[in-house]
Design brief:
- Helices cover 30% and strands 28% of the residues.
- Strands 5-4-3-6 form a four-stranded mixed β-sheet, with helices on one face.
- With 92 residues, the protein is an alpha+beta fold.
């Protein structure tokens, strides 16, 4: 998950910039999971001296863990995952 676009961490983009960023990010993805394949999404907030993470646990197979180094990334991912499927999201 590449968070920096134009040197900014997860900036707000115009529709054209957003479409280009989605295309670029799609080429760099490490895994893909459909919504109905996901059992649980856990987020841990980065603290002052450490990192946080997001763990996506599928109904079958091994979980995918992604390190979060920035509070802004955590906050935006929390908003997106709760909108995506609030019943499977937990945080600490």
């Amino acid at each position: 998950m590449a968070g920096f676009i134009h040197g900014e961490l997860m900036p707000r983009l115009s529709p054209d910039e957003s479409a280009k960023a989605i295309t670029d990010l799609d080429r760099m993805k490490d895994f893909e999971m459909e919504k109905d394949q996901i059992n649980r999404i856990e987020l841990k907030k980065p603290d002052l001296l450490g990192t946080g993470h997001i763990v996506i646990t599928p109904k079958e197979g091994k979980p995918e863990k992604i390190t979060l180094r920035h509070r802004i990334a955590y906050d935006r991912l929390m908003t997106l995952t709760r909108a995506f499927s609030p019943e499977i999201v937990s945080s600490s």
